[in-house]
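FORM 12-B: Structure-to-Sequence Request
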């Protein structure tokens, strides 16, 4: 079991139309590095021909290819985590399978890592996504930075490089819902960001619906910070103080002016507003309780059906 310099981790979910194009660009780019490397594909329970295509590629380049086959669809981040457990490179790079991240950028990432950084994040130079996605992610970025103190200019781009130490620390984490770039950022001591190209999806469609994107962002915020809960206590405190003042004012008015019945609708409006805040708080609390539930349940995060590899790294197939 010889260590290699660079490991590339690629999650694959129903990407049959784009995989060949990926192989055609990825391997030459890596061969051009002039260093030892390995590519780890994780088939995240694709229901198309992706698994067969990956197996064929494994048989073509068994020296540098390893394929982890999941038993079902566990999501992009779980796929990457499984990939991490199978890496042995000093530098680990993640990449999307849809060719939105040009493989030709890998040498620059490696170079930046060699300059002494232990984490290289990326900013998409010209982002090829819909205007809505661009706008929504900018708004979310701002909010996330405020809440979690994790400064990622571009959280969506998965073309990133991680140092072995960071990967080992991530491998030791057992979180169920996580966001890998943010996790890595937490552990890195000398992170940096560089600009990279971004292309249109080579084939197929984005696997993320708007709902999933919202979920992902919720996970990102509640998974890395309890600031929302603290904000909530603060709001509760302010509201209690205000109601206390209101109570005193009404009491005084009762004695000075006698009984008053005006302002019923104002009262309704205030009530609805407060109930709204209350429900939001219950929901927010639920997010954290749900997280705790998932963690204590302690189920395996994913199941691996098989690993195609010429030179086994480990025997455990579950995490
Ligand atoms: N992916 C995955 N499991 C999923 C969804 C996506 O492994 O459940 C992979 C997908 O094959 C791709 C990467 O994650 O390699 C990013 O997915 P996608 O391009 O659909 O996301 P977007 O670029 O729209 O954010
Ligand atoms: Mg994509």
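FORM 12-B RESPONSE
SEQUENCE OUT:
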């Amino acid at each position: 079991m010889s260590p290699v310099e660079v490991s590339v981790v690629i999650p694959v979910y129903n990407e049959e139309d784009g995989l060949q194009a990926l192989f055609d660009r990825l391997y030459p780019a890596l061969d051009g590095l002039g260093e030892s490397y390995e590519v780890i594909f994780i088939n995240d329970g694709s229901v198309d021909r992706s698994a067969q295509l990956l197996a064929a590629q494994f048989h073509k380049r068994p020296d540098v290819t390893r394929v982890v086959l999941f038993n079902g669809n566990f999501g992009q981040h779980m796929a990457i985590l499984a990939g991490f457990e199978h890496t042995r490179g000093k530098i680990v790079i993640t990449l999307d399978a849809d060719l939105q991240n040009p493989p030709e950028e890998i040498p620059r990432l490696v170079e930046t890592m060699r300059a002494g950084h232990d984490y290289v994040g990326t900013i998409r130079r010209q982002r090829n996504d819909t205007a809505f996605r661009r706008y929504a992610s900018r708004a979310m970025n701002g909010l996330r930075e405020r809440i979690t103190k994790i400064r990622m200019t571009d959280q969506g781009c998965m073309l990133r490089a991680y140092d072995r130490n960071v990967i080992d620390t991530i491998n030791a984490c057992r979180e169920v819902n996580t966001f890998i770039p943010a996790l890595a950022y937490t552990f890195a001591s000398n992170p940096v960001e560089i600009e990279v190209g971004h292309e249109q999806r080579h084939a197929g469609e984005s696997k993320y619906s708007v709902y999933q994107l919202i979920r992902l962002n919720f996970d990102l915020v509640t998974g890395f910070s309890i600031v929302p809960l603290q904000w909530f206590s603060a709001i509760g405190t302010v509201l209690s103080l205000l109601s206390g003042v209101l109570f005193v004012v009404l009491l005084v008015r009762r004695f000075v002016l006698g009984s008053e019945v005006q302002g019923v609708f104002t009262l309704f409006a205030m009530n609805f507003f407060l109930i709204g805040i209350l429900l939001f708080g219950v929901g927010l609390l639920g997010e954290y309780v749900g997280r705790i539930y998932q963690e204590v349940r302690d189920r395996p995060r994913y199941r691996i059906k098989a690993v195609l590899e010429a030179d086994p790294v480990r025997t455990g197939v579950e995490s």
